[in-house]
Amino acid sequence: MQLKNNVTTFILLGLTQDPLKKKIVFSTFLLFYLGTLLGNFLILVTIKTSRTLGSPMYFFLFHLSLSDTCFSTSIAPRMIVDALIKNATISFNECITQIFSFHFFGCLEIFILILMAADRYVAICKPLHYMTIMNRRVCNVLVAIAWVGSCIHSLAQIFLTLSLPFCGPNIIDHYFCDLQPLLNLACADTYMVNLLLVSNSGAICSISFVMLMFSYVIILHSLRNHSAEGRKKALSTCISHIIVVIMFFGPCIFIYTRPATTFPMDKMIAVFYTLGTPLINPLIYTLRNAEVKNAMKKLWTRNLITDDKK
User: Where are the bilayer-spanning segments (predicted)?
Assistant: First the structure.
């Protein structure tokens, strides 16, 4: 690795170089990150402690919140700290680590969303066989496959990054390390690496999005045979999932399915799916889900009663 690279550190330009705007970035995204941690922590604790949230849907929601938390943590803390620094730098090894963790938890979120769509399909289209098909053993195996698949995807990103020689310049026009902005710094022909990037990250985003939207079309079409009450409940759940899918996959497809060219809007679009979506997900899944809200109220009430007895 060191034989190919003369660069040992990279300079991250961040979202802005203006001192006043950097303070705004610091305060805004600190609040975003704290909100993400709080919202997802509440979901994790609620699902783990509640007896009423034991269905496969909430098992997958637990892992979605976990991946959201880790996904945001792979980017936000450094971004927030870098906003206070005049010249933000990141070592080559730290850059590699960030690429791995960012793609690992981002890909894990994609796979979990697919599992949640599959769960809804079985629950709505095959309700009598739901608990047989989506038993705990099957759910554990599916989640394990998602974790392994995410690891394979991230290792592919690392392999592509390590195949690039860097001999200067070392300025990354972004607020985190990713393979795409690094392609602009490589002192070699990056056509094949970019092609592999599109066929890897781009294909995962595009194919997964098409699969998810197709599955929800089938689900929504099958709801015509359900009762009005059942149709309303299923619609509420599916619409929540569709909102999450569109918000997450739209920016990802824009970034990863095109050649390694940069646009002024790229960094703001990246903010949306790296920090915005992990913050919005808990709000969508709690505000639009009566069972989760009731479980949170019971947890809060139980804690208050326990505190009063003390």
Answer: 24-45, 57-76, 96-118, 138-160, 201-223, 235-256, 268-287
Tokens coding 217: 């079309």
Map 199-221 to HEC letters. HHHHHHHHHHHHHHHHHHHHHHH
CB 155 within 8 A of CB 201: no
Q: Across the chain, where does the E strand assignment appear?
A: 9-12, 88-91, 171-172
The residues near 45 (Cβ < 8 Å, ≥ 6 apart) are 299
Residue 272 DSSP symbol: I
CB 243 within 8 A of CB 282: no
Between strands 171-172 and 88-91, the pairing is unpaired
Between the alpha carbon of residue 228 and those of residues 137, 211, 291, the distances in Å are: 33, 27, 19
CA–CA separation, 20 vs 24, rounded Å? 7
Determine the Cα–Cα distance for residues 163 and 186; give it in Å rounded to an integer.
10
Rounded to a whole number of angstroms, the distance between the first and last alpha carbons of the chain is 58
- The phi, psi pair for 11, rounded to 5°, reads -105, 125
Integer Cα distance of 116 and 56 in angstroms: 9
112: its two tokens: 């979990």
pTM as predicted? 0.88
**Each residue's pLDDT tens digit, 235-249:** 777 787 788 888 889
The reported pLDDT for the residue numbered 150 is 95
Superfamily per CATH, domain 9-309: Rhodopsin 7-helix transmembrane proteins (1.20.1070.10)
